[in-house]
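In this supplementary section we document a worked example of the pipeline. Step one takes a protein sequence of length 310 as its only input; no multiple sequence alignment statistics are reported here. Step two produces a three-dimensional model, which step three serialises into structure tokens for compact storage. The input and output of this example are shown verbatim.
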Amino acid sequence: MEISQLLVFLEVAKLKSFTGAAKSLHLSQPAISKMIRLLEEEMGVALFNRSTHHVELTDYGVAIQGQVRELVHCFRNIHVELNDVTHLKKGSICIGIPPMVGETFFPRIIGLFHQKYPQIKIKLIEVGSKKVEIGVEDGSLDVGVAVLPVKDNAFETFEFIKNPLMLIVSRQHALAARETVNLAELRDEPFVFYHRDFGLYRLIYDACLNAGFEPEVICETSQWNFMARVVAAQLGVALLPKRVCQELQKQNMNIKVIAMEPPEIYWHLALIWKKSTYVSNAAKIWINFSKTQFADITHEPDFWDQVVLS
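The serialised model returned by step three reads:
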């Protein structure tokens, strides 16, 4: 059994096509077919069902797919480790960031990192917090920024922001005269929510369920300003981080900010990377650099002004 056979096995399984795998791996289709045939002969079972329009894994193929991924992952890690030893402080890093984070203080830290380590290439992927978790876990992202909580058994974390969520309603709303509101009192309100790829979507949704009701979501968006405009138009209510709400109040919008009674819901951000796996030298440098920068930036007097979206 050769690693090349396992790579071919995974690519055929992914694309469900010998022809597609051949194009993807820059090999001839006969070569792909031969490698799969030799692998099946060595294992003594058929790994693919070739009788359908698309090539499908057999039960045997499905059974070994996860272990093959692990073998290929370990093999690649050998090359990554050797490369890091040979090229100290060189390499590349893929970072996943939610849109709301990408439009705040984060580019500043990226810029400082690039100035100090110009030979490390950075690739930024803007996706919701939940997709950041998936990417870090499956290895397509080296590190990312996610809304806590995340799976303790899957990730290492470095927490750097914790800000309570506040309720915003229009000034004409029946609750506008209140200073505090219990979440259960919002059971009959239409909600403007974050997009479901965002960690806060699930966090707020679950908090509503724990309060005894399923929220009626009339709108999903990644834009805080748009959420505020929908609320100002008296179409619904929304929950936003406290500092964002304070900034919205300065804009003289038709909204009222109301504190939530305990238990509070927090916009709690952390840098995450996969637990119990090899972390490239470039990623280690980024993680350590970020820890230092976050510690410095979060203590600056104007830090929360940087957190607010423009």
